Amino acid sequence: MVSHGKMVVISGPSGAGKSTVCRRILEDAKVQFSVSATTRAIRPGEIDGCDYHFLDKQTFRAKVAAGEFIEYASVHGNMYGTLRAPVQTALSAGRHVLLEIDVQGALQIKDQEIAGLYIFIAPPSFEELRRRLVGRGTEAPEVVERRLKKAEDEYRERVKYDAVVVNDKLEDCVAEVRALIGLEEGGV
Ligand code: 5GP
């Protein structure tokens, strides 16, 4: 058991592979995923309350008004937000909490001077990022262009993070993030 939970905020451009990295970090029982709230539609295979709390716009707005979010932002046309209560509960129980959120949200938390570890997952290069986004084949060309533009904007903000980890080789990237959090080598 860890004595003090750490809030770990991970951001990075779409296609940098941050979800895969986060999944690997979450294999460690000492780390808990912060389930965000969102107004976007649920995707096949996702579970409400597990991947996200899927809310309608009105409910999301009510939670904003009630101050229930540490941060919230509009991402790709939908609202996303981190609920304060579960994060606080996990931290006070001594667990690390992992927030996989976009740059706007991460910087909102940082501006509130909330103690945390801010990690930016970067793609090896923008050519590689384009290749990954096109390779997914799930997005229309104009969506890929929009995401690349957003990725470039986000990339400029990396200097505000505690660490920038380049996701060139997944295993190296995971090991580096684990070390930053202070998780012991090789363990899960
Ligand atoms: P997706 O809809 O593909 O799961 O996520 C889209 C984007 O929203 C990702 O960049 C993800 O990091 C970001 N995101 C997910 N949850 C939150 C949140 O609670 N707050 C903010 N600001 N961004 C989030």
Name the shape in a single word: globular
The tally of strands reads 9
Largest sheet: 5 strands, parallel
Q: Return Rg in Å.
A: 16 Å
Mean pLDDT: 92
Succession of helices and strands: EHEEEHEEHEHEHHEH
Distance between the termini: 13 Å
CATH superfamily: P-loop containing nucleotide triphosphate hydrolases
Low-pLDDT stretches: none
* Global structural class: alpha/beta
Query: How many structurally independent domains?
Result: 1
Number of helices: 7
Can you give the helix content as a percent range?
25-40%
List the ligand species.
Answer: guanosine-5'-monophosphate
- CATH level-3 fold name: Rossmann fold
What does this structure look like?
The chain has 188 residues and is α/β, with parallel strands linked by helices. The chain has one domain (7-181): P-loop containing nucleotide triphosphate hydrolases (Rossmann fold). The protein is 39% helix and 22% strand. The protein has a 5-stranded parallel sheet with strand order 2-7-1-8-9, sandwiched between helices. A 4-stranded mixed sheet has the order 4-3-6-5. The longest helix has 16 residues, at 141-156. The protein is globular. It starts with 6 loop residues before the first strand and ends in a 7-residue tail after the last helix. The relative contact order is 0.22. The mean pLDDT is 92. It binds guanosine-5'-monophosphate (5GP). Guanosine-5'-monophosphate binds at residues 14, 36, 40, 71, 73, 75, 80-82, 100-102, 104-105.
Topology of this structure?
Layout: E1 7-11, H1 18-25, E2 31-33, E3 36-38, E4 52-54, H2 57-65, E5 69-75, E6 78-83, H3 84-92, E7 96-100, H4 103-111, E8 117-122, H5 126-136, H6 141-156, E9 163-166, H7 170-181
Parallel strand pairs: 1-7, 1-8, 2-7, 3-4, 8-9
Antiparallel strand pairs: 3-6, 5-6
Helix pairs in contact: 1-7, 5-6
The structure holds guanosine-5'-monophosphate.
